[in-house]
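REQUEST
  id: r-88c1
  op: predict_structure
  target: Chromosome partition protein Smc
  payload:
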Amino acid sequence: MRLNKIILHGFKSFADKTEFSFEDSITGIVGPNGCGKSNVVDAVKWVLGEQSKKSLRSSQMADVIFSGSSKRKASGMAEVVMIFGDVDGEGSELQITRRLYRDGDSAYLMNGKTCRLKDIREQFMDTGVGVSAYSIIEQGQIGQLLSASKKERRMIFEEAAGISKFKAHKKEAQRKLEKTEERMLRVADIYNEVQKQLRSVKLQAGKARNYVEYKERLDKLRLQYYLAEYKRLEDRKTQTEKQLAGVKESCSEVFRELSRLETLQAELQNSLREKEHTISSKDGEIIAVKGRIEQTSQRADFLMNRLDELSKRKTDASKRISELDNQKAMLEAEVYRCENELSDVESQAQSKQDQLSELQELLNEAELDVSSINSRIEDQKTQALDAVRKTTQIKNEIQNSQNRAENLMIEKERLSKSVDSQQTQLESSQQDKKQKQKELEDVKSRIEELSGKLEANKDMIEELNAEISEKVNQAASEKQEKSALEREYRLLNELEKSNEGVGKSVSRLLDEVEKSPENYGYICGLASKIFESDVKHSVAVEAALGEMVNWLIVEDSKSFVKDWKPLADKSGRLGAIEKEQLPASPSGSSEHPRLSEFVRCSDEFSGLKDRLFSSFILAEDIDKALQLRNELKEDEQAVTLAGEIAGQGGSVKFGRGSGSLGIISRKSRMNELNKKIEEVEGRIAEIEAGIDENNSRHKELSETASQIGSEIEQANSDRYKAQSSLQLVDQAIENIQRDLPESQRELEGIDEKIREAEKSKEENEAQLQEIEQQTSSSDSLLEDLRSQSEEKQQYKNELNSQVTNLRINIGQDTVKRNALKQELSGLKGRIENVKLNIKSARSDIEGGDEQIESTTQSVLNAESDLSELYSRKENLADEASELRKNASELFEKLSETEKDLKEKKESNAEGENRVHKLDLDLNETKIKIEDLIQKAADELEIDITTQQQDDEQFDESEVNWDEIKQEISDLKTKIFRLGNVNVDAIDQQEELEKREAFLSEQIDDLTESKNKLSELINRINVESREKFQDTFEKVRQNFKEIFRKLFGGGKADVHLDDEDEPDILECGIEIIAQPPGKGAKAISLLSGGEKTMTAIALLFAIFKTKPSPFCFLDEVDAALDEANNERFNMIVQEFQKDSQFIIVTHAKRTMSIVDKLFGVTMQQQGVSKRITVKFDSEDTDAA
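RESPONSE
  id: r-88c1
  status: 200
  body:
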């Protein structure tokens, strides 16, 4: 891959479309400060996806769009295109484009097609090309590379190692792994919830199946009943329809005559309306003709006024022509005067111009003489400056040779010490390796032991999970039972609150007492609310009270009657019992239990309880009660648990009476439900306590498992650290074994370098003496040339003064001539205007004559129109009178027809009444049929009209409808006892079972996916470590080699800093540099030039390990002196065979090595232009 060209349009200062083409060579970009040359580098970063505004030297991204200048409008879009050739090694091209519009819209394109930034980054990943890669090196980046943290330096090494793509894939895999784990947790929660729901739904499904069975039988019986009823109603409908048809036939003849008369009435009414409409139309026409007469009269008056106005305008135009003729004569006289004066001025100007030409020739000759002498002076100055520069350079080289010799002596001493130190380090590292190997074996044994403990812990957790699941099922069953009890209690409580079973009048009384209790203190309460019993005896208690169950217990019956008799008269009966004035209860004892023993109340009503219930003997059933009748005393009665009563004299009561019966049973049931709910809550609390205990145990085991897992993870981390430490020790031993011979060879070559430095010093001293002799002879020649230049300059100044004075005179004549020409032009223009005004006035006179003639004809036409309109008005008035006469005759005929019509309507009304009565009967039958059809549709969801055809053989006489009704009632009772039924539970059970299986498969799939992603991450880590380690060692060797080339010796190294982070993929990178003749220093202590050269050495070491297709160097050489610049150029030329180099520079030495040079200038303020220079030709192409 190589870079062919960059095209900028509207990007920063490049307002116009500007193209930079590159070849397989070194290209330079130069220009003065502020001309926009670094904008080319910004464009490359921007098109490759740079998102940092700071990196692009902007406050916002829109700043990259050309913002305009004093002479140019701002651009609406910025676009940069990069074109690469030979992308796949077969000559194919790749075009990358980025656009940004001022409204904020942006786009990335690849080969003309819209793409994502991610696609572009992946295209160049691991090629060294990118925003943060080493294909773009800026002056500030040099300092950042050295001042960056150890971990920040990794990025450029990772790009060279080609693991950027691996890291991107690893990051993507880790993101997917996190999502997979999150999804596993969610799916597991859903799976547990589905299992809970399934256990609950299974119970509901069994109940639902019973409901479906009862419902199907009930629907079948209902269908038989509805079909029979439908047949009866259909027969009745048929009979009614026959009667209705006969009555309607008798009404038809009357209706036909009525229709004929109504038709005649309508025809007469239409004829009358047409006549009235015609009369109205004629009246409208008369009004319209009157309006036209008025308009025509007004138009005639306007035309007469117009004739007078045209005559006056003709007279005014004649006067204006006479005035304009006089004005024209005066202007022509002025023109003649100006033409004479202009001729005199032009004659004088020509004479002065000839004199100026002669003086100018003499001045040009003087200027050539001065220029020639000054050129010789500049040549002499240049030679003198060259001599001074050479002298300075030779002196510097003499000093450098002397310094180099001294530094080499110091380096020799340092290398001797370094060799001894490396031998000592080698022995220490070999001992350290044995220790690390022993630590690694200990860690592996510990991991095996912890893994065994973890497996045992997991088995205990699984057993505990099964136990917890069983208890959760028990709790769910108990909660379901509690929910059913609470539903029944809520239903009974609502009936209790709404006073269900209490009479209307009693209910109103209780409402009033509740609103104003202070006014009715004598009322103690309702009997059914004061007395209580258990559920078993509640029916017997209600039967014993009888009608009194709905009575009130009061302290003063007189006040009760006074206050509430009006309410009883309006709303129904009211009853009350005085607490202290009841008849005495029967005395004596009985071997059978009395009902009062099973009734409960507060102490204040205990006497009342005995009086009401002591007379009732409790029997198990009606047979037992009948046997007890002979044993009963006077006023005693036997009552059964079912509420049946047997008394003396053969009286017996069965079933429930009307009124408030059932209130005490309801209250007893509510008390029983409360007790059951408390019992269930106790069992639920006991189960939940067991669950909590198991959960605590589960938590302890989970924490233990987590702790063991953490210990295993820590042990694995220790193992990896031990392995990494062992690798680093091996690497250190290898490095020492490799560096030690090199240091020994370097020590041997230092003596030769010292002799070369002394020889170079002697040669430079001889050259310096020769240059100083040449410098003294050129000084006298320079003085003679300066004297000649002053004489020629004085003569030239005198000629300049004469030329200037003559030019002033010529300029004055020119001003006068121009003024006369301007005045003459104005006069001629005014004459032309006067001629045009005369022509216009004459044209107005001619046009006025034509308008007068046309207006006269219009007046005659208007008078003729008025005559015709008056005649039309009289004709229309006659026609309207005739139409009014005809309308009067039609009105008389219509009155006679309406009289006959009234008589027929009365006769028709009698027939309609009979039809209406039969229609009501028929409609009533139809409504009953429709209600029956709708009821069957609502309850059975069928259409009984179609079912009738399917059951034609149904024999209604064989059906016992009483038995069917009884069975229907029984089925309704069974369905009611089932309570709330979730019919969908059957389908829900099936759906939940399917969902449970699906979620189980999902968990298995997610577990498999998690394992695969973990394996992928581990594989990426292994491959990345191998690649990074291999590349790091290559960069390290290249760095040492290039550092020595750039510095002419010295020593440098990079190594991994694993003190804080032993993982090779995370640890930082430390740089060590030791320029020749100096000790090893931290990077921050080096000089600016040394820092730059060290950074350049490192970047080119990376570049040599994995060259990028191209490299932009933006003023990287700014901090280098001439000697270092020369070495920098040497390195760039060495690498140009592998990559293209584009260098932005100010240095002349750097410019000298480029093959193609682009100049960037600002010929117009704020707008950059490109100038191209090729050094193999003299063509200059200005873009």
